[in-house]
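Duplicate of #3305? Posting structure anyway:
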């Protein structure tokens, strides 16, 4: 009987449900492009509002979904200039990094650490904005919420990729079925929105 030689030095294949590096590249590319477009739209609306205080942004739909209300608050210019400027400076970088990964470029470890730092900062900023929108301003910006989704997805996938690669000292086995965690994260934000605006949310579904 023939005996098949096994190369014990071969590395085991990663679990099928752990996102491949190119998957992370796709999330960064799409999330970065979407975030950049959203930031540009918001910045143009902000400039129009500064030029004409009576200007009503297209995303001001009702008393809850009201970009105009949020644009007039200090939270919309946390660093002294409109928040969308931050997005215009950072989202294209994320998109470019994603394009490189999709193109097969092997990013050095420092680049992955930079992505981790950037997406973590973005994630924390997004959740500060979520709290401000729900608890302080009592209004939501539809375009901002699109950016929230993009930033959280990029943070999640970059973190999983870094753990999988050992850049953060994580173990791939702990990352199985990680998609449920991301879905639960989004659901928690939706629940928080519904709990803050119950009558408005009920109206959306005809109750």
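Output from current build:
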């Amino acid at each position: 009987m023939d005996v098949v030689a096994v190369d014990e030095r071969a590395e085991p294949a990663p679990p099928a449900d752990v996102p491949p590096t190119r998957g992370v590249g796709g999330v960064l590319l799409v999330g970065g492009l979407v975030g950049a477009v959203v930031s540009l739209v918001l910045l143009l609306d902000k400039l129009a509002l500064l030029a004409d205080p009576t200007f009503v942004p297209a995303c001001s739909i009702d008393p809850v979904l009201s970009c105009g209300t949020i644009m007039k608050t200090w939270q919309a210019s946390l660093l002294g200039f409109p928040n969308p400027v931050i997005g215009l400076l950072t989202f294209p970088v994320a998109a470019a990094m994603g394009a490189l990964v999709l193109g097969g470029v092997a990013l050095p470890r420092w680049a992955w650490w930079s992505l981790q730092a950037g997406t973590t900062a973005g994630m924390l900023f997004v959740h500060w904005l979520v709290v401000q929108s729900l608890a302080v301003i009592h209004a939501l910006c539809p375009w901002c919420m699109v950016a929230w989704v993009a930033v959280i997805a990029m943070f999640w996938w970059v973190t999983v990729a870094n753990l999988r690669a050992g850049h953060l000292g994580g173990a791939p086995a702990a990352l199985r079925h990680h998609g449920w965690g991301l879905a639960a994260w989004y659901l928690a934000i939706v629940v928080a929105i519904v709990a803050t605006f119950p009558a408005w949310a009920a109206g959306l579904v005809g109750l």
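Confirmed duplicate; merging threads. Confidence is low (pLDDT under 50) at residues 10-19. The two ends are 72 Å apart (CA to CA).
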